[in-house]
Amino acid sequence: MIGWILATLMVFADVCSDLMLSRGMKQVGTRIDLTFGNLVRVPVLMLRNSSTLAAIGLSALHFFAFLALLSFWDLSIVIPIGALVFVLGTAAARLVLEERVPPLRWIGVCLIALGVAIATAN
After folding, report:
1. Lesser CB count within 10 Å: N end or C end of the chain?
2. Which pLDDT does position 34 carry in this prediction?
3. pTM for the complete prediction?
4. Could you tell me which residues come within 8 angstroms of residue 88 by beta carbon, excluding any fewer than 6 positions away?
């Protein structure tokens, strides 16, 4: 039971981290040029942005849930379950960030979900 709780925490923390990081970077600026001034300015802006800070915290939560999960399950199970991030992340990008997701990408997401189901079947 604890393994499933950790797996759920790991996946949802990763998806939420990706959402917050995407939102935060769009708030920091679009199409950042790699000039010396921006190499200094952008990290400062990122560290002042609440969305990117939340993303860092959620990434840490994902990492520690992943570590804990490895003490319960084999890596060959944890990695495919972690791939659910691609499925849920795409759906969340569409619903929360209102991104356009073309049909071919949805087909790819469905194939990933099928792969997870096959890989985790006993």
Report:
1. C
2. 74
3. 0.85
4. 11, 12, 15
Q: By the 8 A CB rule, do 26 and 52 touch?
A: no
CB-based burial, 91-102: b 16+ in 10 Å, e otherwise: ebbeeeeeeeee
| Residue 112 confidence (pLDDT) | 92
Q: What is the pLDDT of residues 6-61, one digit of tens each?
A: 999 999 999 999 999 999 988 887 666 777 777 778 788 888 999 999 999 999 99
Question: Is 23 in contact with 51 (CB distance < 8 Å)?
Answer: yes
| Dihedral angle sign, alpha carbons of residues 66, 69, 74, 80 | negative
Q: Interhelix angle for 50-70 vs 2-28, to 10°? A: 160
DSSP string, 11-70: HHHHHHHHHHHHHHHHHH-SS----HHHHHHHHHHHHH-HHHHHHHHHHHHHHHHHHHHH
Question: Tokens standing for 74?
Answer: 């084999």
Q: Which residue has the tokens 């096959």?
A: 118
Spatial separation of the C-alpha atoms in residues 69 and 7, rounded to whole Å: 7
